[in-house]
Amino acid sequence: PETVKPSVTMIGPSDNVSGSLTMIYHLANGKFIIIDGGIILADRIYKELKELQPNATKYTIAGWFISHPHNDHQDGIEYFIEQHGHEVNIENIYFNYAKSSYYDNPSDKDHTNEREGARATNLREILETKVSRSTRIVKPHSGQIYNFGSATVEVISTVEDLLPTK
């Protein structure tokens, strides 16, 4: 049932935060969809949930989408779960990363690609140890559509679309 007026909240860079962006969709049924979130925004995400639904005793995140394995987009979910996991129910987590071999690049002198590949490989393992058994970890593909009550999310593209075919 629709219990609240839907809204979108964007948490973006500020004086002390650079490069991070998080979107919070408050759905008509009172649940949330979150897109991305760096570690520096994890507490701010929880604060926004409390402000958007002040009378709730527990918050339900219907879907948390992680776009890519940069720390300012993915690292917040792990910290968020550690700090606030007992106060939220995360129903689904969505991400689709390339295999770490995609990031291998001998000319990458600062090993940035290697680090991103390691994060991509380890995120599923990290989340599986931190989320409840009822949380589904989903690998979305381009063209898929997910329905969350009166809200619909369509996956326009994933990293698979950019990978070499050989």
- Please give the number of β-strands: 9
- How much helix is in the residues? 25-40%
Work out the radius of gyration.
16 Å
Which sheet architecture does the biggest sheet show? 7 strands, mixed
Which series of helices and strands comes N to C? EEEHEHEEHEEE
Description:
The chain has 166 residues and is an alpha/beta fold. The protein contains 3 helices and 9 strands; from the N terminus they run E-E-E-H-E-H-E-E-H-E-E-E. Strands 1, 2, 3, 4, 5, 6 and 7 form a 7-stranded mixed β-sheet that branches. Strands 8-9 form a two-stranded antiparallel ribbon. Helix 1 links the parallel strand 3 and strand 4. Helix 1 crosses helix 2. The radius of gyration is 16 Å and the shape is globular.
List keywords for this structure.
single chain; 166 residues; alpha/beta; seven-stranded mixed beta sheet; two-stranded antiparallel ribbon; 3 helices; 9 strands; 27% helix; 23% strand; globular
Topology of this protein?
Elements: E1 7-11, E2 22-26, E3 32-35, H1 42-52, E4 59-65, H2 71-84, E5 88-90, E6 92-94, H3 112-130, E7 136-138, E8 145-148, E9 151-154
Summarize the structure.
This protein is an alpha/beta fold.
